[in-house]
Amino acid sequence: IGGRRGGGKPLPSAPDQLNFTAIRYHLSFVAYATAAICMRTPLLKAQGGAVLGWVMRQLLSPRVFRYCDFYWPADGSPFACRENVMWTGHLLHVATLYEALTGDDKYRQPGGLRLVDGRGREWSSDAEALGLHLAACMRVNAAGGVPCEPGLVFFQCQNHAMCGLRLLEALGGSRVPHGFFGPERRRFLQFATGGMRAVVGTGGLKVVVVTTPQHTEPFCAPFARERAHLEERLASAARAGCETIAGEHRPPGPSPSRVLGSVPFAHLGSDGWDLTYLGWWADSGRLAGELYTLAVQPKVSRGAWGYGEHPSLDSRPPLACCVGLNIPKSAYSAQILPMLRQLGDGSNADRVEAWLRRHFRREAPAQSHQGGGGEGGGGE
Hints:
Number of strands: 5
Order of helices and strands: HHHHHHEEHEHHEHEHHHH
Structural class: mainly alpha
Largest sheet: 3 strands, antiparallel
Mean pLDDT: 85
Helix content: 40-55%
Distance between the termini: 34 Å
Low-confidence stretches: 1-10, 315-324, 371-380
Radius of gyration: 21 Å
Shape: globular
């Protein structure tokens, strides 16, 4: 995983966007933090829209998605890849957050998502089409998720695709009724809450499950079938005038996808990422708390993650697992702290926050910011 995912040692000759410091992550989490702030500070709507619009332009730039040619060199449009949710999932999540915040549906309009690749070719899609594409990718996958790298299904990356699908159901004027992607949500969670429970006591959910790589020729016909099914489901809801869809639909048909294996351990930073976002898209608002209480909180409460230590000790592999990744606590605390706050574990949240403030907080002089928001605000 360290080699393929890139945290410690990137693949030989791999482009620089195949690691945990890839800028798509920095961009996307800036967008999520901005949206969260603006939800509670309505006067910042214009500034927030400007930030999310800028993030979208960066996500659609070749610098961010150019690694696609490394994993999928024979492919055409990056929007059509049946894997790579580590880019498409964030793209959908940020695009739908932009509309939810600003009321501007430009990314949902035909051709609203547009990019030019490194060879000068122009490709386009839109938020609804990308949502249907991701749902069809889920339906042909044995785990019910969309791989990041070929065949590798990470729970944390499904969060952003699922949040985007949930927002598509909620946006005003969307063709997608409430509950439309419910079957896909339930199918993935049914697998994840059983097949992704860690069997080594390092946390809650396994870091990754290995499935059959699906951006290959044998998956073309199954994918086309599932995409057509989703289009018909959408048309049927429109004919019936449904604003809400409840109940099950036709299960996915045959697919070459198989679960080939998994990494048995969890990682508290990964659990934080998983559970921080799960509550925003799961049909049950209790699920994240139940998983935390059952599988994650015991590890947190034992204090095995070393808060109280000096950050210089971060050079050790966290929890003696993910050895190739060696992610510093100062980085993965950004996922753990919001999980603890959201799920009501105040004592542990105070401990993490105190450690971060002690070692990393810096007071900057107050600055006066001039000018309004708007899509054109800020530089590229």
